[in-house]
């Protein structure tokens, strides 16, 4: 995530809102919607084992969320926004190998995330701005141990988006 006010957000509305599984609020009928999708079928259970047992595993809590191997460059307000209930549940979430980067090379401008396990700060002087900042930053990193995280690979930015091919002769 580059130049965003908040990188990720997770809240606990299931724990605090009266609408949760309340027939007077049909858009919040999680259990009914899950049953309609046959969420416990073998195909779902194999691919999403946590989903298959969600109703038996504190369904109001935002469990089984994974925040791993993300890079946040210049998220100027917050790298992550978790409410107080989520902060109490962090030990039940998969949070690992996330890096908050300051492109100015000054640790004073890096968003402090020391209270959340699985996040670290890094300074990286980037001589670019706007969309070019992403490309310049990625080019600074190498594929082996990228961002200090073993096994991290750079995003293939050059392969993302529209491309000319047999069906698309021109780009917008």
Structural features, described:
The chain is of the alpha/beta class. Helix content is 22%, strand content 17%. The chain is built from 6 helices and 7 strands; from the N terminus they run E-H-H-H-H-E-E-E-H-E-E-E-H. The strands form 3 sheets. The protein has a 3-stranded parallel beta sheet with strand order 3-6-7, with no helix packed on it. Strands 1-4 form a two-stranded parallel sheet. A two-stranded parallel sheet has the order 2-5. The model has no long low-confidence stretch (mean pLDDT 78).
Secondary-structure blueprint of this entry?
Blueprint: E1 6-10, H1 13-16, H2 30-36, H3 42-47, H4 49-52, E2 66-68, E3 71-73, E4 78-82, H5 84-89, E5 94-96, E6 98-102, E7 119-123, H6 130-140
Parallel strand pairs: 1-4, 2-5, 3-6, 6-7
